[in-house]
């Protein structure tokens, strides 16, 4: 089975490649191959691949992404770039008669003022948190675009909705990154300078984190077994933790004794979602996923960063 992975060498794409079984030929596209905001460039590269190795599925991971502070800085690009990229990929897949596309959204797109745990049917029931509205609306529209292709052309274009993802091959640049790679970047430099680990915000905010390899397993399983295309699958473990718990664990693994908090903007207080295994049980699936423990996932990610930032 030939599968194109857009954003193929990034946080999720690289994990999909690592966890693909031997029957799958992964073709990893990244921004070096083509600017997916450009329709003609994207059509050229994807049809060239399709003509030589017929593609049955596209896993669409490519996006302009970033943590809280990048989203607050760049709402325009977060919306425009993602709208362009998503529209191009779906139109190209359809034009090349590629019948299955899996799209990766994010739980930050759910309404901010809502009853917890968040359930998938809440997706369009109110505005997202102001800190990421550009990105959130572009990704909500992607859910609607997939639905339109299913309705009008019977395409199996569907979405999965992960919580905060972390792992090797992430973007560790603290200006744009998410919290875990940002704190790992800061921890490694603080350790060298024998300084405390500085955490943005109060540390009280709550998040659910999924390790990228665990997410990859859900995506490959969904391609083979998941039939409820109208119900985007939320990908998240049960437990929700504070940012300070994450920071303290990174400090402990990095042998840093002191953690300090800036108490500045912390974004959405929480975005608690119904976990994947409960969702699957409610939909009648017997499949249950195991989760990588946070300490193990963080240790592997720190070791990967130290190895690759030399
Ligand atoms: O991961 P993060 O940037 O994104 O921040 P969101 C999570 C929490 O960690 C916030 C705190 O409360 C931050 O204040 N934090 C503490 C830090 N230290 C740091 C740090 O050094 N760097 C960063 N980045 N945060 C994003 C959405 O929201 O979630 C994206 O904006 C996407 O669009 C992503 O959906 C999954 O969880 O707040």
Description:
With about 300 residues, the protein is α/β, with parallel strands linked by helices. It contains ten helices and twelve strands. The chain has helices spanning about 10-20, 40-50, 70-75, 75-95, 135-155, 180-190, 210-225, 245-255, 275-280, 295-310, and strands at about 1-5, 25-30, 55-60, 100-105, 155-160, 165, 195-200, 205, 210, 235, 240, 260. The strands form four sheets. The chain has a six-stranded parallel beta sheet with strand order 2-1-3-4-5-10, with helices on both faces. It has a two-stranded parallel ribbon with strand order 6-9. Helix 8 (about 245-255) crosses helix 10 (about 295-310). The longest helix is centred in the first third of the chain and has 21 residues, at about 75-95. It is globular. The two termini are about 35 Å apart. Bound molecules: guanosine-5'-diphosphate-beta-L-fucopyranose. Guanosine-5'-diphosphate-beta-L-fucopyranose (GFB) binds next to helix 3 and helix 6.
Averaged pLDDT: 97
- State the major sheet: 6 strands, parallel
- Which ligands appear in the coordinates? guanosine-5'-diphosphate-beta-L-fucopyranose
Q: Helix-strand pattern, N to C? A: EHEHEHHEHEEHEEEHEEHEHH
Helix content: 40-55%
Number of strands: 12
Beta-strand fraction estimate: 5-15%
Biggest sheet, spatial arrangement of strands: 2-1-3-4-5-10
What is the structural class?
alpha/beta
